[in-house]
Amino acid sequence: MKTFLRYDISVQTKQYPFKAPREIEELSQELFLKCSKYSIVDQTMLLLVPIDVPEYNLIMKFKSDYPEYTSKLVIYEHKYSKKEIEEAEFLLLKSKSMVILQNNKVRFEKCCEKGKFSGKQINSFIINKNQFQNKVISGTNVYRYLVSIEAKEKLEETEISNIIFIPVYSVNNSELVAYQIEVQSLLQSLEPYNNWGIYKKCENCGKILSNTKHNFPQPFMIPKDYMKDLKDFNATSEVFTELASRYYIISKKMYKTLQILNAKKLICEPIKFID
Ligand SMILES: [Zn+2]
């Protein structure tokens, strides 16, 4: 695994009151020159820097020295070799493909009477059939995953554990076009190992509506002791948006099954097991 920071080191030069003084703008330009071999967009000074090079520390220092002028958008990316992915026992489910739900038909429960959406989905998804054509698995704009009818059959055939299938219908004629995949039971809390914290709570009932997203230099972590509790299809008990999006973790068996079906846009990341 190699971890990279994606970060734009340009400073605010326009908007009052955060316009950076001239000398800080110059510092950012100097820093950019030092890091230029990691530039991916010169105009905006966007960098993709490995976290184990000295330039990474320079960037983080610059960011902490001038928090009022520098970007708060810190994104970490983990790149894995084919071998690491092939050998992983469990992987974080990710897909480059996305289907947009025909949204006013999707309803979620609220946390309490005066509260906000808390993400318990109360009806089937409706999609535009064309968007899912020729796909095996796809993410959605509400962070759930859909699989094809063929994939559902194959996942059942290979006896993938802890999975349920919820029908997804086409917007035009209510034809069955895919299945949403969900878990039967959730994992125990992984918060202590991943420091997700609380992003949003309901002011009225106190329910946690959202934890912070996993965007750290370290990969997604699970204690080794938990491995025996993992099924083929798993979801975190923590949620990461007010629509209660979760992280889904799949076993090697489920990953291979999706690969046999030729799911091209899977970009799963190995889970790190810790002592
Ligand atoms: Zn509430």
Walkthrough of the structure:
- By secondary structure, this protein is an alpha+beta fold.
- It has two domains: 2-79, no CATH class; 87-274, no CATH class.
- 21% of the residues lie in helices and 29% in strands.
- The protein contains seven helices and 20 strands.
- The chain has helices at 22-34, 54-65, 82-87, 129-132, 149-157, 191-194, 252-260, and strands at residues 2-8, 39-41, 46-50, 75-79, 90-92, 98-99, 108-110, 117-121, 126-127, 137-140, 145-147, 163-170, 176-183, 198-201, 208-211, 221-223, 233-235, 248-251, 269-270, 272-274.
- A six-stranded mixed beta sheet has the order 6-10-11-13-12-9.
- A hairpin with a 6-residue loop joins strand 7 (108-110) and strand 8 (117-121).
- It is globular.
- The two termini are 19 Å apart.
- 29% of the residues are buried.
- Zinc ion (ZN) is lined by residues 111-112, 115, 202, 204-205, 207.
- The site of zinc ion has 7 residues, from loops.
Percent of residues in helices: 10-25%
Number of helices, counting only DSSP H or I runs of 4 residues or more: 7
Shape: globular
What is the domain tally?
A: 2
- Write down the overall mean pLDDT: 92
> Strand fraction band?
25-35%
Number of strands: 20
Largest sheet: 6 strands, mixed
H/E series, N to C? Answer: EHEEHEHEEEEEHEEHEEHEEEEEHEE
> Structural class, please?
alpha+beta
- Nearest-angstrom radius of gyration? 21 Å
Q: Unreliable runs, pLDDT <50, ≥5 residues?
A: none
N-to-C terminal Cα separation, in Å? 19 Å
Bound molecules: zinc ion
**In order across it, which strands form the biggest sheet?**
6-10-11-13-12-9
